[in-house]
Design a protein that fits this description.
By secondary structure, this protein is an alpha/beta fold. The protein contains 26 helices and 17 strands.
């Protein structure tokens, strides 16, 4: 019988013998691989922490004891052991389990997270809450070595180490974040006693010591103790010791004979402790071991081969953006690119291939990435910061204070703008229009298609100030591409079709849906204009106001939050121009965190499809004061008609 099927909670896990754990881990990996191959997800990182997760839930008394997973995209085993096995096939699906920890989903999920570097801070907050409330439970945070490049992690270690409360941080060291780790801290951690030279030396020394008559075994044990002391005194433990943590490790995170007793011991230690655990990303599935970057967050794939289940028929917006950037960089040596541990995700590996000395991966350090770009720009370079919309949020102050106040020519390539599907609430790019458009000096653009995208990149790099180009996740529309990028006039939109009844003002990917909706409305007698705004800032006020003055209804469309976003900018422009007599409506994302689900389904749910735009315009026209007056007049006229008798009615 399957061991995994007997486990409904960690209490069931405690009834097992540790001798059964290797079989359980194999079953867990099979379950994870089977589901992720069907629905996509974070595979490699989850396969790497199976043993560690089993050991933690075996030794801790969860949910009384608290486990915090930094980023939490490696918590699939945690979900399977905490009562969610029956629902695991719904992972990352609309209405199903989240791909991350979610407090609303389970009492075992102690903190919602989707961004790296938050775990130690949150966990230490729980430590201090425990102390303030006089409680006695344990708090454990698992943080990846990639998150050691995040400033927040170091800030939290500094704080926790200084206060000295009981707290266990487990450093899950697999030499990877999403891309391969970079920087001095990564190099520091990699100088462990796990290298080939040290392993060989250790084996040979032990062999020689055991040959000494009578005392060989004792001497070898003494040598092992000396070795452990050396580990704590030399690399990499010294860094953590200086921050106030007792350092233990590194140990093999896949060997229960090492993992269980070591964990049991460190959980008894007083004060802040850091346990260094070495794991292998993708362990148990050869394709993921060989290509951990692709299998970090992969689409559905063929389980037997590891190849994608579907091949995209057209290039992605990301690919078009980077191809255009490469073309422009060939002609301008001032152009450099910056990523925050997302080289493959943002497509910049193609840029790096041609310009290896002009690509900077700063690690999970978005704040540093932006201010680093500002320094480059201050000295005449043309830096391009490429990151997902959800991650640019982390560097908001740097955008405002370090880039915009100095009007520096930094280009922000904002990937995954809008709805990003299965990663859900922490990853949708809902807020960038709103948090960028009110920043002085900032230019905010979004293309209607891939051809316009290449021209916007050229526009941004030619502009002598900060500018952002926002584009969505997914494949392009397949429109014809101009041979070369050319700059657009800053702040100028385009009138795609004219009309006298309704004006739809759209930006970004919903523009073509707006055009199709307008065609349908016009066929039904509502003459409908469509404006491709192109710029959320500076807005083409002249074009929008001129069209608004000759229609009765203005509808704005954006794949971003309605509050303070693009639609708000249009209404402000109409107000500033004194436009009256028009009925308005903003179509966009509502004031809550959007759930996970396929992009098309979410766009349909929030009225951002052709049918949704059409329906909203029809509803607006039907509810307008003019329409209601017409309805009242018609009703009054009917009331004044002569009434026949019942048979003649």
């Amino acid at each position: 019988m399957s061991i995994l099927k007997t486990i409904q909670s960690p209490a069931d896990l405690k009834r097992l013998s540790p001798a059964q754990f290797p079989v359980l881990c194999q079953e867990l990996r099979e379950q994870i691989i089977g589901v992720v191959s069907n629905v996509g997800g974070h595979l490699a990182s989850n396969l790497g922490v199976v043993e560690l997760t089993v050991a933690l839930h075996y030794l801790l008394d969860t949910p009384q004891d608290k486990i915090v997973w930094d980023t939490s995209n490696q918590a699939y085993t945690h979900k399977l052991l905490t009562g969610r096995r029956e629902q695991f096939h719904t992972l990352r699906q609309y209405g199903g389990l989240s791909g991350f920890c979610k407090r609303e989903e389970s009492v075992y999920d102690t903190f919602n997270a989707g961004h790296a570097g938050t775990g130690v801070s949150a966990a230490y907050g729980m430590v201090e809450a425990r102390e303030q409330l006089g409680q006695r439970h344990k708090v454990v945070c698992i943080v990846g070595d990639g998150a050691m490049t995040a400033g927040m992690t170091l800030e939290a270690l500094h704080h926790a180490g200084g206060l000295g409360k009981d707290f266990l941080v487990i450093l899950n060291d697999n030499q990877m974040s999403i891309s391969k780790n970079v920087g001095a801290i990564s190099s520091y951690l990699n100088r462990t006693f796990t290298g080939e030279f040290y392993t060989k030396m250790r084996e040979e020394t032990g062999h020689l010591l055991r040959k000494i008559p009578h005392i060989g075994s004792d001497v070898e044990k003494l040598a092992r103790r000396a070795e452990e002391l050396a580990k704590g005194a030399i690399l990499p433990g010294l860094l953590f010791e200086e921050l106030g943590f007792r350092y233990a490790g590194p140990i093999d995170g896949h060997n229960f004979e090492h993992l269980l007793p070591t964990l049991e011991n460190v959980l008894k230690m007083k004060g802040p402790v850091l346990l260094h655990v070495i794991t292998k990303k993708g362990l148990g599935y050869e394709p993921a071991v060989n290509n951990p970057v692709w299998f970090h967050a992969c689409p559905p794939f063929v389980r037997e081969t590891g190849v994608p289940a579907k091949k995209a028929a057209r290039p992605s917006y990301t690919q078009i953006a980077v191809d255009s950037l490469v073309k422009l960089a060939r002609a301008d040596k001032r152009i450099v690119a910056i990523t925050a541990a997302m080289c493959e995700g943002t497509g910049l590996n193609a840029f790096e291939k041609e310009f290896p000395d002009r690509l900077y991966d700063v690690g999970i350090a978005e704040q540093h990435a932006v201010t680093f770009a500002a320094g480059l720009a201050a000295q005449g370079m043309r830096p391009v910061v490429a990151m997902y919309a959800t991650f640019l949020q982390r560097a908001y102050d740097q955008v405002v204070h370090d880039v915009a106040t100095q009007n520096l020519p930094v280009t922000f390539c904002i990937d995954r703008g809008g709805l990003v599907a299965e990663d859900g609430t922490t990853h949708h790019g809902a807020f960038d229009y709103a948090f960028l458009r009110h920043v002085p000096n900032m230019v905010v653009m979004a293309p209607k298609d891939e051809n316009e995208l290449q021209h916007m990149l050229k526009t941004s790099l030619d502009y002598d100030g900060p500018a952002s180009v926002r584009y969505p996740r997914g494949v392009c529309l397949g429109v014809a591409m101009d041979p070369a990028p050319t700059a657009l006039p800053v702040g100028k939109g385009e009138l795609l079709r004219d009309g006298t009844d309704v004006a739809i003002v759209a930006i970004g990917v919903p523009v073509w849906q707006a055009v199709k909706a307008a065609e349908q409305l016009s066929r039904e007698g509502l003459s409908t204009a469509v404006i491709n705004a192109r710029f959320a800032k500076p807005l083409d006020q002249e074009l929008i106001v001129n069209v608004a003055r000759r229609v009765r209804y203005v509808v704005t469309v954006e794949e971003g939050c309605k509050m303070g976003g693009f639609g708000s900018a249009v209404l402000e422009a109409l107000s500033d121009a004194g436009v009256t007599g028009v009925t308005t409506k903003i179509l966009g994302l509502p004031d809550w965190y959007i759930e996970q689900g396929p992009q098309d389904l979410l766009r349909e749910r929030y009225g951002l499809t052709t049918e949704g735009i059409y329906r909203s315009v029809k509803e607006l026209v039907g509810k307008s004061p003019a329409a209601l007056r017409e309805r009242d007049l018609l009703s009054a006229a009917i009331d004044h008609l002569p009434h026949g008798d019942e048979q003649g009615s």
